[in-house]
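The authors assume throughout that readers already know how a fold can be written as discrete tokens. In essence, backbone conformation is discretised, so a fold becomes a row of integers matching the chain in length. A single example would do more here than another paragraph of explanation. For illustration, here is how one protein appears when written out as sequence plus structure tokens:

…
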Amino acid sequence: MVRGSLLVLLAALAVGCTNYRSRGQGPFADRPRKGFTPPAALPPVNPPTPPGPVANPTPPPPPPEPLAAAPAPSRQPELPPTTVAPPTGPRPPVVAAPPAPPQAANTVAKLADTATKRWATIDTFEAKLTRREVVRGAAAQTEEVVLQLRREPYAVYMRNTGEAGRGREVLYNPSRHEDKVHAIVGEGDSRLYKAGNKAPSLSPDSPLVKNKSRRSIRDAGPGTAVALFARLVQTSPADLRHVGTVQRPEFPGVPLELVEQTVRPGAEPDAERGGVRSWYFDAKADSPSFGLPVLMTLVEAGSNPPRELEYYCYTQVKAPAGLTDADFGVERLGRPRR
């Protein structure tokens, strides 16, 4: 029995020694048991992919979900950066486009040039002048006047043929009769002098003379208007606007070039509010008044209905008129008319 107990004790000791050797870390360690993988033999976290096709590859584990955060404020979409185009090679020559139509400023300047040259060729001028004028606020009356004019030396003769001022004659010839206006009184002109009588000779600057018209007799005729328009083209081109070719009942069948002028407030007598002056130039090449301003009107700004401040219209034009020095002598004043 003692022998049996010793055998059991020896067997237990043998088993304990065997288990101790299995945990050894040296050349004396036992071979690993089936199903057990030592720590050194574990595969790396990201093992290298073996060459060649792999059957049933194991997908990598999904990345951890980020923690929920507050939504960021919306931003305006950014514009794409500007790109610089690379240089290109030479291109074939471009065919020139047809010239653009002349600008309005060039057209206005051409009208001024044509009028200036046309007036320079005229020595004497005759026309029927129809005029209406607001003078010192008085209501305008329509006057019909026969106008005769000599350019050099300057001389003017006018005779009223319409209802207003009928029979009035006015002559101004400073080269022969001093700087005086010589006149025959017309109907309704004066309470002191009877119609048909000769009036006292007065200076063009006399209030009795200036009250009859917005313009001085020194400025009668289209020549002064031509010079004024040319000066406006040079000094105030922004105040001129070419409208185009128009028709007017005063000139049936005659094309007229219209230019509108902005008159500044207070720039002219009786035009404190300013206005618009319309210049009409005769555009008919075979007309005796070709190139000249034959109609001019001035309408007050802001008036309703439109208030006309002046109206000058030249019809039945003769240029040249073949006038002589005798047509501008005081001797002709008061002569009976045939």
User: Anything to note?
Assistant: The chain has a mean pLDDT of 80.
